[in-house]
Amino acid sequence: MENIIRKIKMYYPVSDEALEALVCLFERWVFPAKTTIIHAGKLDRKVYFIEKGITRSYVLHNGKQITTWFSKEGDTACGSWDLYRRTAGFEYVETLEETTAYSVSVEQLDELYRSYIDLANWMRVLQQENFLRLQDMHIRRLNWPAQERYEHLTKECPELFQRVNLGYIASFLGITQQSLSRIRANGRFLT
């Protein structure tokens, strides 16, 4: 659980006691690549902590999959409506490689937050950071040309280009795969 603990402590100095309480609740999963672990329209009250592997979150729009997020080692994956609204959400989460993850129920997390303020603060900081990332992505999609969005992603997450299908990356950037191929072919941005 080295990747998970390292990432938690990166966001907030959670005590060893609180981490032990969290880890004691973990249920281990090993998912093959291309496994849907969260389904739109189906309530899932689990948060998955990814130790090894990568997932993508996506929504369906007019029958087309639109990638909204990637989660990798140390990150969490869950349905946001499932987590915050206690209702089935609109997003899917699927593994892109074999993924080792640990799950804990939302109810168990809520109980831990009441007992360990440092865990509650960790989640608050994590959600703040995710909100800011989403806001930045939204603004970039509205204001930046496709080439600049691509360049930013290659600097921010270069490992995605080694691990993720380019069609998913194009979808995440809000462009077609053909546009992504043209941008990559122009030779300015090597990945």
Give the tally of β-strands: 8
Number of domains: 2
| Helical proportion, percent range | 40-55%
Poorly predicted sequence stretches spanning 5 or more consecutive residues: none
Can you give the mean pLDDT?
93
* CATH architecture grouping of the largest domain: Sandwich
Classify the beta-strand content into a percent band.
Answer: 15-25%
> Order of helices and strands, N to C?
HHEEEEEEHEEHHHHHH
What is the number of helical segments per DSSP (H or I, 4+ residues)? 9
The fourth-level CATH homologous superfamily of the largest domain is Jelly Rolls
Descriptive keywords:
alpha+beta, four-stranded antiparallel beta sheet, 9 helices, Jelly Rolls, 2 domains, 191 residues
What can you see in these coordinates?
With 191 residues, the chain is of the alpha+beta class. The chain folds into two domains: 2-126, Jelly Rolls (Sandwich); 144-191. Helices cover 48% and strands 23% of the residues. It has nine helices and eight strands. The protein has helices at 2-11, 16-23, 80-84, 106-115, 117-143, 146-156, 160-163, 166-173, 177-185, and strands at residues 27-31, 36-38, 46-52, 55-61, 64-71, 76-77, 92-95, 99-105. The strands form two sheets. Strands 1-8-3-6 form a four-stranded antiparallel beta sheet. α4 packs across α5. It is globular, with a radius of gyration of 17 Å. The mean pLDDT is 93.
